[in-house]
């Protein structure tokens, strides 16, 4: 049941961020993202892991979305002049991080690559259809989002595994096979 609540909560945060950006009220999305992160963190049995994931995701979001904005490949509504990426996008990255050990806790690195490569660009294309972003360099931006989100999602899964003490990669078994 917690996984379902986590999934639904993230979807609500996504909608709040996108709709807030569209209606020049990006602060509502930021507030929704922060509220989701805070509520999930308070209910989490692994707060230290989740805090590390949120910090990593915020940095990844600033790097990926900031780079795409700087390149002029994506134009974001509701941007913040003093951040490389809009605050509502950064809030979404933080909210996404809170799904990694909860509703997406089943992800393994290979599946994380696939989910990120498909889900990341689809989320941006949905936001574009609604008017929250514009992929000004459509093909390049979509490819960059697919690669960036694949690597970021996989990295977050690996950070979570490492923070929980799990081996990030299965060790070799006798005979050299995996």
UniProtKB/TrEMBL annotation:
It holds the Pfam family DUF2878. This is DUF2878 domain-containing protein. The keyword Transmembrane helix applies. The keyword Endoplasmic reticulum does not apply. It comes from Lysobacter arvi. The chain crosses the membrane at residues 12-39, 51-73, 85-104, 111-127, 139-160. Keywords: Membrane, Transmembrane, Transmembrane helix.
């Amino acid at each position: 049941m917690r996984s379902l609540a986590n999934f639904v909560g993230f979807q609500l945060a996504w909608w709040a961020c996108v709709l807030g950006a569209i209606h020049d009220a990006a602060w509502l999305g930021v507030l929704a993202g922060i509220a989701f992160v805070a509520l999930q963190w308070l209910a989490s049995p692994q707060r230290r892991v989740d805090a590390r994931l949120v910090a990593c995701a915020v940095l990844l979001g600033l790097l990926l979305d900031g780079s795409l904005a700087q390149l002029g490949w994506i134009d974001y509504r509701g941007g913040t002049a003093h951040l490389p990426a809009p605050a509502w996008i950064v809030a979404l990255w933080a909210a996404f991080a809170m799904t990694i050990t909860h509703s997406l806790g089943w992800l393994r690195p290979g599946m994380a690559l696939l989910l990120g490569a498909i889900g990341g660009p689809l989320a941006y294309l949905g936001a574009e259809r609604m008017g929250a972003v514009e992929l000004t360099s459509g093909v390049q931006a979509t490819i960059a989002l697919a690669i960036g989100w694949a690597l970021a999602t996989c990295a977050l899964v690996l950070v979570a595994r490492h923070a929980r003490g799990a081996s990030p990669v299965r060790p070799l078994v006798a005979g050299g096979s995996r």
